[in-house]
């Protein structure tokens, strides 16, 4: 549904930020752009909603060149979430969320219903939060409102540029999980920029790895770990054993989760995440033969992966 065909961006000062890239994002896909700072991720993202125009090549959305679409309509159909929370400080939470619905001339009652629905979706009680100012919310809550505001006009596409990188680890875990859940519920097409490989591996259906304006590999998390295209990808993902091959049994807690979808204790974390994505739940019940031996959740997997990452870093420093 989003298609980049031989797209290049050269800035007036001569910097070639993006060099002849090609990729396609499928409808409903969670597509992650990843790479080191300065490799062209933000430029690529901004070309989708025309905050930046490509110098060469074509970008199509649903087979239509974005240059022939009405610019305002294009922006309304695309939600955009930035690293720096950009809520309007003098407007209430409800007013902040209502911006695009009002531009789209939704009725007051539709807009109000949408605000409540979205606040509930990210676990913020509308009665409590609707009339607060952004300054009366924590950083994590403000960022959650940023995500919700981007969804308010019911866009088909959501662009997210390092949306969690300014957050403390706890809010970050929570929001990663929220966004994973949201994707399951609403099935938007999401293009998500990060430089955090664990975040990419957790959330992505497919990952595009960028280096100096080029895309060096586009693949599923599993294939990237198992078949890195070159040494750059290998070093980027870390020369480590694949933590996704770890068994559920090693990562689970011993708390039972009666009624949750089941997974065998010998299944891999990849399998567990696939199953979590496919189900409507965020926890699975772990079975050894027919006996419940524990449960595994998104949160435990995230913690396991970040501990794993930390231990790799420690080893490198020794
Ligand atoms: N407006 C601009 N003018 C000139 N160079 C720019 C401009 N914006 C970004 N760049 C350069 O383009 C390259 C890619 O930037 P960017 O897309 O922001 O990278 P990333 O998001 O991956 O960190 C960098 O070298 C950056 O300095
Ligand atoms: Mg950037």
UniProtKB/TrEMBL annotation:
GO cellular component labels: plasma membrane
Q: Which SUPFAM superfamilies match?
A: CBS-domain pair, P-loop containing nucleoside triphosphate hydrolases
One Pfam assignment = ABC_tran
Q: Which reaction does it catalyse?
A: a quaternary ammonium(out) + ATP + H2O = a quaternary ammonium(in) + ADP + phosphate + H(+)
Q: Which family does it belong to?
A: Belongs to the ABC transporter superfamily.
Q: Please, one GO biological process term? A: glycine betaine transport
Q: Which species is the source of this protein?
A: Alkalicoccus daliensis
Task: Return the protein name.
Answer: Quaternary amine transport ATP-binding protein
Q: How does it assemble?
A: The complex is probably composed of two ATP-binding proteins, two transmembrane proteins and a solute-binding protein.
* NADP found in the keyword field: no
Q: Which UniProt keywords apply?
A: ATP-binding, CBS domain, Cell inner membrane, Cell membrane, Membrane, Nucleotide-binding, Repeat, Transport
The record ties this protein, via InterPro entries, to:
AAA+_ATPase, ABC_transporter-like_ATP-bd, ABC_transporter-like_CS, CBS_dom_sf, Gly-betaine_transp_ATP-bd, P-loop_NTPase
Kindly give the Gene3D superfamilies that the UniProt entry links to this protein: P-loop containing nucleotide triphosphate hydrolases
Q: What is its EC number?
A: 7.6.2.9
**Domain spans labelled ABC transporter:** 2-237
Q: Which domain of life is it from?
A: Bacteria
Q: Name one GO molecular function term.
A: ATP hydrolysis activity
Topological type in the membrane: Peripheral membrane protein
Q: List localization entries.
A: Cell inner membrane
């Amino acid at each position: 549904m989003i298609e980049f065909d031989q797209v290049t961006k050269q800035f007036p000062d001569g910097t070639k930020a993006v060099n002849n890239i090609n990729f396609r994002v499928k409808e409903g896909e969670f597509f992650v752009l990843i790479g080191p700072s300065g490799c062209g991720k933000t430029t690529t993202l901004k070309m989708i909603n025309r905050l930046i125009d490509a110098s060469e090549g074509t970008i199509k959305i649903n087979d239509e060149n974005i240059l022939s679409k009405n610019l305002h309509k294009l922006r309304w159909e695309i939600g955009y979430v930035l690293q720096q929370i950009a809520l309007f400080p003098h407007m209430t939470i409800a007013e902040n969320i209502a911006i695009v619905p009002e531009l789209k001339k939704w009725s007051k009652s539709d807009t109000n219903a949408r605000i409540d629905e979205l606040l509930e979706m990210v676990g913020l009680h509308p009665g409590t939060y609707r009339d607060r100012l952004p300054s009366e919310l924590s950083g994590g809550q403000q960022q959650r409102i940023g995500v919700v505001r981007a969804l308010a006009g019911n866009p088909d596409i959501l662009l997210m540029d390092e949306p969690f990188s300014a957050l403390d680890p706890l809010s970050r875990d929570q929001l990663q999980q929220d966004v994973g859940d949201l994707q399951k519920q609403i099935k938007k097409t999401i293009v998500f920029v990060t430089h955090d490989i664990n975040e990419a591996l957790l959330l992505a259906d497919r990952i595009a790895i960028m280096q100096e304006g080029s895309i060096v590999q586009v693949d599923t998390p599993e294939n990237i770990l198992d078949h890195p295209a070159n040494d750059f990808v290998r070093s980027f993902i870390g020369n480590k054993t694949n933590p996704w091959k770890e068994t559920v049994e090693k990562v689970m807690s011993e708390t039972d989760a009666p009624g949750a979808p089941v997974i065998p204790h010998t299944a891999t974390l990849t399998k567990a995440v696939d199953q979590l994505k496919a189900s409507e739940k965020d926890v699975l019940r772990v079975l050894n033969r027919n006996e419940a031996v524990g449960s595994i959740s998104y949160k435990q997997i995230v913690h396991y992966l970040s501990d794993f990452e930390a231990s790799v870093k420690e080893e490198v420093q020794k």
